[in-house]
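Record copied across here:
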Amino acid sequence: MTSMEKKLDQSFDELEQEEIMVPAVFLQKMEETLENLPPKETGNGVDLPKKKKRKWWVYAASVASFLVAGFVTTYSISADFKEYVKNLFPVNDSGYQKAQQEGLVESLQLTATDKGYTIEIKELLVEGRRVSVVYEIKNEKGESVPYSALFSAVNTQWHAYIVDPQTKKEKEIWINDIQNANNRKGIGTGLLTLESPTEIPDKAVFKLEVNHLWKEGNYVSPKIADIDVRGTWNFSIPIDLTKAKAKQKTGMGSERIQLSTGEFFVESLELLTSQTVLKTTFVGEGGESPETREMAEYQLLDDKGNLLFSNENWHILQKYHNNDFLKSRVGGMHIDKKYVDTYEFAIFPPSSYFTYRLHALWIKQMLDQKVLYQPNTHFQTEAGNFTVGSLQKGKHGTKELVLQGEIKDGYGDMKFHFYDQNGKLTGYAEVMPMQLLHGNGKAVISTSIPNNDTKTTTIMLDSIAKRIPINKDIKIVPQPAK
């Protein structure tokens, strides 16, 4: 029995639900290649009785392949049938499923048990610098608990490493995202994605160490008991990227942008089997970084000039164009005195080259402007005129700063620090333009100052992001990975 056959067999066992109607249009396609398996017509589709469901796995797998290939946009099918096919696979993500079809996803079923709780790693996908882990947590009764119990608290303790088998050196990798693997809320299979700050060796070992599971039951639907368990759940898994790299293409930017404050360049565009990853880098003078929420304002185009993605006006609108195409933005990371911005997209269409059309860079401008804190204090900056209101009690044990004013076009995030009369730091805050624009020129900003603080006397406006127009096209030509 093949691994796919086993997976589908297991999925059928787990999906004890109502009978599913398979659309006739799919069965017509199936009959072209599966003539020895005549369907039993039932009006608009074919009935799949639970008792005979194992005999129909070929149909289900074939239909699933149509869905993965994008046939859901071509044929009209029922919502319950779509949901049924989604549940055949642990991860409801077309890129992940494509990697699975290409044999890059390793099926593991590794378990670690302590204090009555079991973590099972079901699957592992390693591509580029990304590690994707499909897992499930069960309690002592064998019941699934919320996938987010793995990383849902500030005090949750865990570590993940990539170990080079030759040097034996461990490099810690960072969490990128954690989500429900198949879009079932609260309970079920989790998909943990991690990002390595450096290139992963072709052959290495992935280590995951967890010693705290935590979840507050009140925030789960349906409600469950609180989870707060300390123990030891460790995994050590050999990985091999040889096959993945053989299918990978990587391109670099054709030129670097020189600024008075540093240098910007497209570090890489990785065309992976499961996704496309764009990394841009800013190297400031003395390792200074832009420290803005969005470093570059840009568009991505293919070799025919078709627009693939644009994040223009993000600082004002706080939304992306072509948002369905963007899977996630990892955000800025400080790596070896560089500031690296990472975007993860769906699979790019075939193209001999791509154009990174850089409209502008948002670079941090140091201001170091002090304002004595008192209600209705006015202060002027190159980005606009503002009035500080009160430091009022916040909702989460910290104070909130009331700020009035309007940020001028071409300016972005403002960063504040707060000090007492002796110059000791008491807290900080950050203001984004859309907070003032959407609030009709008034923003209430959370700070890190405790509610019981009475010592804050000075507000320091540290920096503001300024838009630097660039307007350059940077060509990226993908090449087979070495």
